[in-house]
Amino acid sequence: MAFVGFIAFQVWRLIAPPTLTIDSPTPDAFTDKPEIVVAGHTAPEIAVEINGQLISSKPDGTFAQPVELQNGPNRIIISATKKHGLFTTVSRTIMLKSPETVASPISLSPVPASAHPLN
């Protein structure tokens, strides 16, 4: 009976898509930095791609890769693919609010009543 359970587990490992956990960034994050680090983990020997670019991961399956952001919403797609083609995909949308798009505070000076256009 234990042998059948072992065989079933091995078959399941072959036909199941890889696990993929994204540690950062969190979903729907906001930042004012033009670059973030996408970090996470999967099983060893799994190919990891971020936005279609193959990245290197450590032997234990962990990875961390800087990604440049454009102003506004940025969709980041992370994929983990087994040797036989089974894959798992996770996406994150990150909003970059660059300092130049944030309204700067204005300073107001009092205007003498005699200079006001309605007087």
Molecular structure report:
12% of the residues lie in helices and 42% in strands. It contains 1 helix and 8 strands. The protein has one helix at residues 2-15, and strands spanning 20-24, 29-31, 35-42, 47-50, 53-55, 62-68, 72-81, 87-96. The strands form 2 sheets. A 5-stranded mixed β-sheet has the order 2-8-7-4-5, with no helix packed on it. It is elongated. The termini are far apart.
DSSP helical segment count = 1
Strands of the biggest beta sheet: in what spatial order? 2-8-7-4-5
Task: Predict the CATH topology.
Answer: Immunoglobulin-like
Beta-strand residue fraction:
35-45%
State the CATH superfamily name: Immunoglobulins
Q: Would you tell me the structural class of the helices and strands?
A: mainly beta
TL;DR?
This protein has 119 residues and is mostly beta strands. Helix content is 12%, strand content 42%.
Task: Produce the secondary structure layout.
Layout: H1 2-15, E1 20-24, E2 29-31, E3 35-42, E4 47-50, E5 53-55, E6 62-68, E7 72-81, E8 87-96
Parallel strand pairs: 2-8
Antiparallel strand pairs: 1-3, 3-6, 4-5, 4-7, 7-8
